Amino acid sequence: MAAALLAPATMRADEGMWLLSLIGKNYADMQKAGFRLSPEDIYSINQSCLKDAIVGLGNDGQPFWHFCTGEIISDQGLMTTNHHCGYGKLQEHSSVEHDYLRDGFWAYNKEQELPNPGLTASILVRMEDVTEQVLGSLNDGMSEADRAEAVEAISKKLSDEAVAGTLYQAAVKPMFNGNQYFLFVHIIYRDVRLVGAPPSSMGKFGGDTDNWSWPRHTCDFSMFRIYTAPDGTPAAYAKENVPLKPKHHLPVSIRELKEGDFAMVLGFPGTTNHYVTSYGLSEVMDVTNKLRHEIRTVKIDILRQEMAASQATRIKYASKYASCSNYWKYSSEQNKALSNLGTMEIKRDIEGRYRQWARNKAPKYAEALPLIEKACEEMRPYNEARMYLIEGLLDGAELPFEAYQLGVLMNRIADEKDAERKEAMTAMLQSEAAQFYKDYDEQTDRRLLAAMFGHVYDKMNHTYCPDIILKAGKKYKGDWTKYAEKQYEGSFFANAERFEAMLKKIDAKKVKKDPMFQLGEAIYNQYRAIAQMMPKDARDNLARGQRNFVDGIMQMNAGKQLLSPDANSTIRCTYGNVKAYDPKDGVSYHFYTTLRGVIEKEDSTSSEFMVPKRLKELYHAGELGVYTNSKGELPTCFITNNDITGGNSGSPVIDADGRLIGLAFDGNGEAMSGDIDFEENLQRCICLDTRYMLWVIDKFANAQNLIEEMDIVR
Question: Which of 329, 474, 508, 624 holds its CA 20 to 30 A away from the CA of 291?
Fold first, then answer.
């Protein structure tokens, strides 16, 4: 994106996360890339279309923030997404006796499907440009606080009016840093059940080693089903609920793929930063990415050791480890890619041309970059401190902050006089505690606390470090293991047994004196204090400067080039082609991989490259079914030049005729700059081939019940 800004009137098919209601502006370019349908086949409010099969996966309380994407592939609400998107639910349902992470899970009838309280499935009903209504209530003389308040008020009014008398939910989302606004109306389903997933040895094949890289052989899919009340309306889980009857579902293709074939991804990308300045880029590279990778390295080393030593610990921490390690590697790879591509120089060049343009414009445009530069400089020490507090302390060992949260609720219960409310609050406390202790191991957490606190004490600027940790560092003279032992031994939060004993008669004084409660309280209070310390003028100037800078960029490109807004978890379309690439001199990568590569990569000494016995038996017996290509190979993964990011995981990769050909699940390390700077020669979207997915369902799992309900295009 950075290189394209201020460029001549051209548009590349592979770059951009486009808003669906405006996709007609891209239609001629899509046709050049090979698209054979119409814009109305993608988005329409008058007929069923592709958007009706695209699902944003979220959680109760945050249904408009989609952590992954899914797609409906049958007229009975059957949905596919990535294995890593369903991994947390697999973990929740797993135990030592029923290890679905290790063995996989398959429902051979609907009665065997597993409910997932809190998981939501959101489908777009319609969207509308409401820029005039929102900006009409604003003016340049407003403070940032007044502006935010006005935007919130008009957004709520527009959202409420849009869904009045319906079962829908709506939200207004800003685009281009608050220079445009769109209203999104969704129908959100709350009964989403687990249907199937391969073993983790297949669904996570390659592990951290292969993550963010190509070639890949990961069988990255899981399956869910959306249920509704008997009348078809959204409802929480109930036995009498019935499978969703969708407006549209995607046919699943097993036709051969060729290089150059059209490929389109529809999904809910989370966050990109294409319009960041060089000052913001420095913050990303030198603070966010650098510190995240540094701190998580400490955590990951301990988790690996503890998970390798115990099956129970492996199950408890599997999802937490996956979440931690994913962006641990991403941070490092993104910094490498940004450096290799010279993105900082590109940004500075854009800013130089912007300054020339701004000379003869309104003063707010010329002031934008100086405001951003000064704000970034003033905010940096606070942002560094926040990274250490979040990554090292709040997200390090789990017990301190959990003890604080549980303790606050316990104290409220102790003070509550109303018996009915007291009973309800106690039930909530017991539920939250049970959920925490289910996936908590005291030994692992002790080691994490000692290591993370020691790292923070050694690395963090002591001006911003919590006093309780500074005092501990002096008292224990760097022996953080001894410090951790003392805290856990003295806390009734340290394990479920002690906690349950305390619950029999809650003593507010004991709660407040508990070392873990005090530790969590101190860390949280310091986190809030640093947020308050951050200069308000700097925050306001950054927001104002960035908004005016992006406004200027849009004006400079008006009539020259279409620009897409940054991702913000709203539904988008990216289109391009199946395409190989050359990552460096003397190296060329093919556009697809096959099952043979899984066999070749097998390493029985590495948990990342283990291959199930049944898969090997099927491969060597040649039982590949109807899923092979013209060479007799079973394709596993392929690559396209689509523009994706986090949140796109699980997104459907759709061919020129609207059929599912793959599931997007990763990007390549050489182009991890893509959230900031799209590099057309390197950027690749890594996709699971539907033929591998179907072969696993059909031959490996023998789940013909699922095969039979899909529309498979041969």
Answer: 474
Upstream peptide bond of 215 is cis (omega within 30 degrees of 0): yes
For Cα atoms 95, 112, 427, give the angle at the middle one, nearest 5 degrees. 55
Q: Per-residue DSSP letters for 117-186?
A: TTEEEEEEEEEEE-HHHHHTT--TTS-HHHHHHHHHHHHHHHHHHHHTTSS-EEEEEEEGGGTEEEEEEE
- Name which of 377, 393, 397, 374 is nearest 385 in CA terms: 393
Beta carbons within 10 angstroms of residue 282's beta carbon:
17
Residue 14: pLDDT band with limits 50, 70, 90: low
- Which residue is listed with tokens 């959920």? 435
Encode pLDDT of 433-463 as tens digits: 999 999 999 999 999 999 999 999 999 999 9
Which of these ranges, 10-24, 120-134, 617-631, has the smallest mean pLDDT?
Answer: 10-24
Task: State both tokens at 603.
Answer: 């390493």
Residues 6 or more apart whose CB falls under 8 angstroms from that of 473 comprise: 457
- Closest to 21 (Cα-Cα) out of 163, 133, 182, 135: 182
Per-residue pLDDT of 362-401, as tens digits, reads 999 999 999 999 999 999 999 999 999 999 999 999 999 9
Across the strands, what pairs with 574? 265
Name the amino acid, one letter, at 256: E
User: What residues contact 569, with CB distance under 8 A and at least 6 apart?
Assistant: 56, 64, 65, 66, 173, 268, 269, 270, 271, 647
Pair 597, 215: CB distance under 8 Å: yes
* Separation of alpha carbons 225 and 246, rounded Å: 11
Question: Is 186 assigned a catalytic role?
Answer: no
Strands 242-243 and 685-689: unpaired
Are β-strands 581-584 and 685-689 bridged in parallel, bridged antiparallel, or unpaired?
unpaired
Say what the alpha-carbon torsion angle 260, 67, 456, 318 is, to the nearest 10 degrees.
-90
Q: What's the pLDDT at 284?
A: 98
Q: Contact, 643 vs 258, CB < 8 A? A: no
Residue 455 annotated among the catalytic residues of the structure: no
CB 55 within 8 A of CB 77: no
The CA-atom distances, in angstroms, between 633 and each of 597, 624, 637, 703 are 11, 8, 12, 22
Assign 3-class secondary structure to 355-410: HHHHCCCCHHHHHHHHHHHHHHHHHHHHHHHHHHHHHHHHCCCCHHHHHHHHHHHH
Q: Are strands 252-253 and 712-713 parallel, antiparallel or unpaired?
A: parallel
Phi, psi dihedral angles at 343 (to 5 degrees): -65, -35
Task: Write down the catalytic residue from 155, 222, 649, 651.
Answer: 649
How far apart are the C-alpha atoms of 364 and 175, rounded to whole Å?
19
Taking the C-alpha atoms of residue 65 and residue 269, their distance in angstroms, rounded to an integer, is: 10
Burial of 20 (0-12, 13-18, 19+ CB in 10 A): buried
- List the structure tokens of 510: 């004991």
Whole-Å CA distances, 552 to 523, 549, 572: 41, 5, 24
Average pLDDT over residues 693-701: 99
> Is residue 108 packed enough to be buried (19+ CB in 10 Å), middle (13-18) or exposed (0-12)?
middle
pLDDT of residue 7: 42
Question: Nearest CA to 315 among 163, 444, 134?
Answer: 444
Verify whether residue 220 is a known catalytic residue.
Answer: yes
Let me know: does 102 contact 93? Beta carbons within 8 Å.
Answer: no
- In the chain, count of helices (H) and strands (E)? 26, 23
CB 578 within 8 Å of CB 263: yes
**220, 643, 677, 689: which one is catalytic?**
220
Contact call for residues 439 and 88 (beta carbons, < 8 A): no
